[in-house]
Design a protein that fits this description.
The chain is α/β, with parallel strands linked by helices. 38% of the residues lie in helices and 9% in strands. It has two domains: 3-246 and 257-277, Aldolase class I (TIM Barrel), CATH 3.20.20; 299-408, no CATH class. The longest helix has 18 residues, at 115-132.
């Protein structure tokens, strides 16, 4: 099999892993080497489905000794298999980089032979890339749970970012759908990387993971609670969510004609954003009583509609944390308000002059003691108004800017 044929197979096999963020490198520049170590040299773009396209994103192999029923690469699945050699991985990365196709490498793998054997092959790839090619660019490696500690440490030392997929949110679901995996095995790489960094007095590497959404019955509340645990224990910097795409028939999986829960995935990303940057606790966003996110509204708006006793908020007196909870006000808008109100009492017209969108916020704030909108703060009234705002005008489609903003912008 040619390298080109392997590349076609192993890039396709890697497309289901969305945990491939890049955020720069602090690797020391070696004289005579290639690749940028400056943060601006590690750029990234995202395809329409949210997957990173700036890195050479491949599996080392799609052979696997595991039989996870949700995975297309499981051992029982009849599909074409391929595997790179360590030299092929390194050569491909450098050749793609020199052609300006990529900024770095994202390398994951199925399990070939054993966990240790697979990690040894990945380690050899990185050694060739770093030492023989002198490649100083960005490398993200997906660690293999169950591999020996010394191999995990050796790979981590040569990579700029490492991650390890949790995949399913509970031990019960792992037992049903991935019987070769346990929670302890999956958490092992996270603990090793964190403990090594703390022992050496270094900053803990920002690790990430992926959780599959919709393959198992866990609620959004359970998923966000697990994410919160990872963040609070400094085991992870980012959790990625991947809507399950049915590829096989199994009694414990959704039927093949079940559409991927893309909106649910989107809402979980928004909820995760609120937890990481807006000061929300996971149990404010979802609860045991209401365990699933409202798909009609983004999580901050849904929280506000449930918590009308906190509103309206006076923009001239509220602190930063309170302002960030107002639907429609994001970090940039709040910072503008905080700066401007040092100079004068802000009125509604001032917000308009500052180009702060009041499409949603107008119902939840006052300016100079006066409401922006006279609508009574009752759930039924605001629910209908917010639903009207969510509906596009007949014959129109949301722009790419609207989609990006709703995902990462002014929540």
């Amino acid at each position: 099999m040619t390298v080109e044929e392997k590349l076609a197979i192993l890039t396709d096999s890697a497309k289901y892993d969305v945990s491939c963020s890049s955020s720069g490198s602090t690797r020391t520049q070696d004289f005579g080497g290639i690749g940028s170590t400056h943060a601006s040299g590690i750029c990234h773009a995202f395809s329409a489905d949210g997957r990173c396209i700036s890195l050479l994103k491949i599996l080392f192999t799609n052979h696997c000794i595991y039989d996870c029923v949700y995975c297309v690469n499981r051992i029982s699945n009849d599909r074409q298999r391929a595997a790179f050699s360590p030299k092929e991985v390194a050569d491909l990365t450098v050749n793609f980089y020199k052609r300006n196709y990529i900024e770095g490498l994202f390398l994951s793998s199925g399990i070939i032979g054993s966990e240790d054997h697979t990690m040894e092959l990945i380690l050899k790839s990185l050694k060739i890339l770093r030492y023989e090619h002198g490649f100083n660019g960005y490398v993200h490696v997906k660690l293999i749970p169950g591999a020996s500690e010394y191999l995990i440490r050796a790979v981590t030392a040569l990579a700029d970012r490492v991650s390890s997929n949790i995949e399913l949110p509970s031990q019960k679901s792992l037992a049903l759908l991935a019987p070769d995996k346990t929670k302890e095995k999956l958490f092992q790489p996270l603990h090793i990387v964190k403990n090594d960094a703390l022992t050496q007095g270094k900053k803990v590497m920002g690790m990430s993971t992926q959780m599959i959404i919709g393959a198992s019955p866990e609620s959004d509340y359970e998923i966000l609670k697990l994410s919160d645990t990872f963040y609070n224990k400094s085991l992870l910097k980012r959790v990625y969510f991947s809507a399950y795409i049915p590829t096989t028939t199994h009694k414990h999986l959704p039927a093949l004609n079940t559409p991927p829960p893309l909106l649910r995935e989107h809402r979980l990303y928004q909820a995760d954003w609120l937890m990481r940057f807006y000061g929300f606790a996971f149990d404010e966003i979802a609860s045991e009583k209401n365990p699933f996110l409202d798909e009609r509204f983004d999580p901050k708006l849904a929280w506000a509609l449930r918590s009308l006793h906190h509103f309206p908020v006076e923009i001239n007196r509220a602190d930063r944390e309170t302002l960030l909870r107002v639907p429609g006000l994001g970090v940039r808008s709040v910072n503008k308000i905080l700066r401007a109100r040092r100079q004068k009492l802000l009125l509604a017209r001032d917000l308009d002059t500052m180009k702060i969108s009041l499409k949603r916020a107008r119902y939840f704030i006052t300016a100079g003691g006066s409401p922006i909108d006279q609508t009574e703060l009752r759930y039924e009234r605001l629910e209908s108004k917010m639903l009207a705002l969510e509906m596009p005008k007949p014959g129109t489609q949301p722009s790419l800017f609207d989609i990006i903003q709703s995902t990462t912008g002014e929540l």
